[in-house]
Design goal:
Number of domains: 1
Number of helices: 6
Radius of gyration: 18 Å
Order of helices and strands: EHEHEEHEHEHEEEHE
Oligomer: single chain
Number of strands: 10
Structural class: alpha/beta
CATH architecture: Alpha-Beta Barrel
Distance between the termini: 11 Å
Largest sheet: 8 strands, parallel
CATH class: Alpha Beta
């Protein structure tokens, strides 16, 4: 099992889905589900570590020794059904949750920012300024490439990927952290890496993109890297093509077996 890679999933996974995930080496799943104990009982005997996405008030029902993430892209309010929050309001929620979860030996990831853009990092920096430093109080972020970019390109607002890396590490300031969402599709990009290709359009598959990006973040010190997501969506937009499994049920190889190659 590869516990450095996590898969964004949904509730009520079937035995067949669990078997497929296990066979392909996924050691973690990120899931939103109100019945924490039930999902833990499904995952942990199989050697899979669940990461639960918490909504306000759910921290009261979290079992001991559970790994959680507080909210989902609350810096921007761009995820469906998740409100935009000020850094102070989010930090107050984090402090309340941490007060409950610390005695239960839980690990809490805070932030869950929608991307590594300068504005998202500024929001997160302020959040963390209100919070204590603790080994089990950790930081999370999502990372999606810009529409006209590639995984090897920095987010807009940074002159280079190295600058983006430095900004991120400066914000987390030595805390443990993880990438808890990253979605990629097969895409063409302009390759400026050498005179051989200089500006030519080249295809980078989702599998190659995730392998490159997972290595980037794990080498920087991430606890784990999360691929979004198990299933493709029902639509035809790019965001509906991010899964490791097609709507037909077919596993999209080699992407689905990424943990076995990293």
């Amino acid at each position: 099992m590869n516990h450095r890679l996590c898969l964004n999933t949904f509730a009520h996974l079937s035995d067949e889905e669990f078997a497929g995930i296990l066979a392909r080496g996924w050691g973690r799943v990120r899931v939103e589900h109100e019945d924490f104990a039930r999902v833990k009982a499904q995952c942990e005997p199989r050697g899979i570590a669940p990461l639960f996405i918490l909504r306000p008030g759910e921290e009261d029902r979290v079992p001991e020794a559970t790994m959680c993430e507080l909210g989902n892209e609350n810096n921007a309010g761009c995820a469906p059904d998740w409100e935009r929050m000020t850094p102070r309001a989010y930090a107050d929620w984090a402090l309340r949750a941490w007060e409950i979860l610390l005695p239960r030996s839980c690990t809490l990831y805070v932030g869950a920012i929608n991307n590594l853009s300068p504005s998202a990092l500024a929001w997160l920096r302020e959040v963390l300024s209100y919070l204590p430093t603790h080994d089990q109080l950790r930081v999370s972020a999502h990372r999606y490439s810009d529409p006209d970019g590639d995984v090897t390109h920095a987010k807009k607002g940074f002159r280079s990927l190295a600058a983006e890396n430095r900004a991120w590490l400066d914000v987390v300031a030595g805390r443990h952290w993880a990438i808890t969402e990253a979605g990629l599709v097969d895409a063409y990009y302009r390759d400026w890496s050498s005179w051989k290709y200089f500006g030519k359009r080249r295809l980078r598959t989702a599998a190659d993109g995730h392998r490159w990006q997972a290595t980037r973040f794990l080498d920087l010190g991430a606890d784990f890297y999360t691929v979004y997501q198990l299933h493709d969506g029902a639509g035809t937009d790019w965001i509906d093509q991010l899964g490791i499994r097609a709507q037909s049920g077919a596993w999209k190889e080699p992407l689905a077996s990424l943990p076995l190659t990293l």
